[in-house]
Amino acid sequence: MRYFGARALSAACLMLASACEEEKPKAALPPAASVVASAAPTPTPAPPPPVTPPTVAKRPKVDMELTAARRAAIETKYPEAKAFLVGKQLEEKLKTNKAIKAKEGAVTAFDHAAKGKWVLFSGLMVNLTDKGFDLAIVYTPQLPNDVMGMSRQFFEVTLSDVEGYDQAQFKSGDPVVVLAKYLGGGKATPAHELVATEVWK
Known about the structure:
Elements: H1 2-23, H2 32-38, H3 68-77, E1 85-86, H4 87-95, H5 103-114, E2 118-124, E3 132-138, E4 154-160, E5 162-163, E6 175-184, E7 187-193
Parallel strand pairs: 1-2, 4-7, 5-7
Antiparallel strand pairs: 2-6, 3-4, 6-7
């Protein structure tokens, strides 16, 4: 009787211990949502502002005719250039010079007439750089049946140190009127862009 009583008591204790183990609360795990919420979200970088190219004002049509009033205004503003030569008149002399057969001869003839003197150049600017640009000097006449002007031959005069010139404000093909000291060999400096300096009106 004692034997069975002890066994029964022992079994009852085991069942009670097992029940106590089941009733113990398990450690609560943090919910997944709270873990996600605790991590700060990475901000999305703002897109860079669009790059807008600088606006270049359209060059107005320029009347290239040298009038007496314009010459007087130029010589008043730049007295060191008094009695300046006119590039277009020098071009006409080159066109009638039958001895000129090639570019080298044209440059030599132009140097002979204009080297060391102030010259009024006018035309369409090309080959723009941050330091200056080129203007063409035509030394052969245009053939009568050449509507495109392809028969004309020319050399370029490079103008640098130009007052009134800013590469950002001009584009190739813009008309310009420039007073410059011609140094020879197709180079001229210093120079003044007369439309930009408001002398050419």
